[in-house]
Amino acid sequence: MNSAKILVVEDEEPIRQMLLIVLNNADFDVQCAKDVREARDLIAESMPDLILLDWMLPDMSGIDWCRQLKNDPSLNELPVILLTARGAEEDKVRGLEVGADDYMTKPFSPREMVARIKAVLRRAGKSFTKTKVVVGHLILDMERYQLSYQGRDVPLSPTEFKLMRFFMTHPGKVYNREQLLDNVWGRTAYIEERTVDVHIRRLRKVLSEHGCGDLVKTVRGFGYRFSL
Ligand code: CA
């Protein structure tokens, strides 16, 4: 659940799908964009740990966007691996000159791709099990097993903590009761769906006592969404 989040920016559907499968199998949390515009929107929503960036994209070349990222003080520590069909040494040099953290030529082996990603994440000092998840003024500290809001600890039961961990690592998306059961309690748990509502209600009560009760929203007829 707290694996590194990889943003794949690739316009070619088959390669995007292949990367999605390979990275999911390697337990990464994957998001895909088909151009730079989509990638920017996704980053604004939640920051990835690494970008796999194709060189040839429809709206802006990967190399130009990489240069922009590396010149942006708020984004320049975000690791970027450039992907390209080109194999020329001078392209590789250009890629690394604009600040890409690594460079891979298509076609690449899935195993090598995963190994390179792990190496870049390690160099960037990103560990796979994040010890803290930060969303707005909320901080979920995995080591202390503690949630805090605006610096104040919010006492949660183990189930509420797991719910919050799931919500905070998946902000903005709607989940129905069954999906929450699968993700938070596990597929094998024998729990009725309405139990989810009970736990959500308790969680909201604790959150609202700390001034942030509106973070978990009900999406009528479907389920729940966590957003600021
Ligand atoms: Ca492309």
Description of the molecule:
There is one protein chain. With 228 residues, the protein is an alpha/beta fold. The protein folds into two domains: 5-123, Rossmann fold (3-Layer(aba) Sandwich), CATH 3.40.50; 132-226, Orthogonal Bundle (Arc Repressor Mutant, subunit A). The chain has helices spanning 13-25, 36-45, 62-71, 89-97, 110-123, 158-169, 177-185, 193-209; strands at residues 5-9, 29-33, 50-54, 80-84, 102-105, 132-135, 138-141, 146-149, 152-154, 174-175, 216-219, 223-226. The radius of gyration is 20 Å and the shape is elongated. The mean pLDDT is 88. Calcium ion binds at residues 11-12, 54, 56-57. Calcium ion is lined by residues 11-12, 54, 56-57.
Order of helical and strand elements:
EHEHEHEHEHEEEEHEHHEE
Q: Which stretches are low in confidence, meaning pLDDT under 50 for 5 or more residues running?
A: none
By secondary-structure content and strand pairing, the structural class works out as alpha/beta
- What is the mean predicted local confidence, pLDDT? 88
By CATH reckoning, the class of the largest domain would read: Alpha Beta
The proportion of strand residues reads: 15-25%
- State the total count of DSSP E strands: 12
Strand order of the largest sheet: 2-1-3-4-5
Could you please say which CATH topology of the largest domain applies here? Answer: Rossmann fold
Sheet of most strands = 5 strands, parallel
How far is the first residue's CA from the last residue's CA? 21 Å
* Rg, alpha carbons: 20 Å
Count, helices? 8
Mass-distribution shape: elongated
